[in-house]
Design brief:
Elements (H helix, E strand, L loop, with lengths): L1 H10 L13 H11 L3 E4 L2 E2 L2 E2 H12 L5 E6 L4 H9 L4 E4 L4 H12 L4 E2 L1 H11 L11 H11 L4 H8 L3 H14 L1
Parallel strand pairs: 1-4, 4-5, 5-6
Antiparallel strand pairs: 2-3
Length: 180
Amino acid sequence: MFTDGLIELLSSEDDLDVVGQTSSIDGAKRSLLTASPDVVLLDVQLHDGDGFQLHEYLNGECGAQVPAILYVTGDDRLISINRAMSLGAMAYLDKTGGWEEVARAIRRAVTGAKTLGTNVAAKLAEYSFAPDSSKQPLSVREIEILTGISEGLTAKEMAGQMGLALPTVRTYVSRLFKKL
């Protein structure tokens, strides 16, 4: 539904043409061979993998002719933002930012300018200017999570054993990385 709405809104812009749409890596590879777009919008989560896999494929296949890659995603994890930008993404946008933010990022990308969505930039600022967490002691739950990691448990296994939601375990792991 998000994709359909975004396509309709972007297609209504005079200076933007939508030349294809797919929700899989394989579909994107086929479309990109025939369409040769200037810009590719990617989500981190795709049906048959993730956007990073497709981005790496494009970097390898297209060489200097890689289209501008813009991530439009619900994944606001710092590790995902960093990976996308490290791969050469021209933008990382949160799906809640609105289609105008996407259109603006597309226009900026074709001029070579990078863009972070408003919500993404706020998250990075919050993280970058947070107090030094390395001086904070580990909580009891963080010690339990660290013990689980040292025992080779997956986040899913720890969530089940501790009665936590999987995203909660991932949050604890993220906090551990900051502190350690």
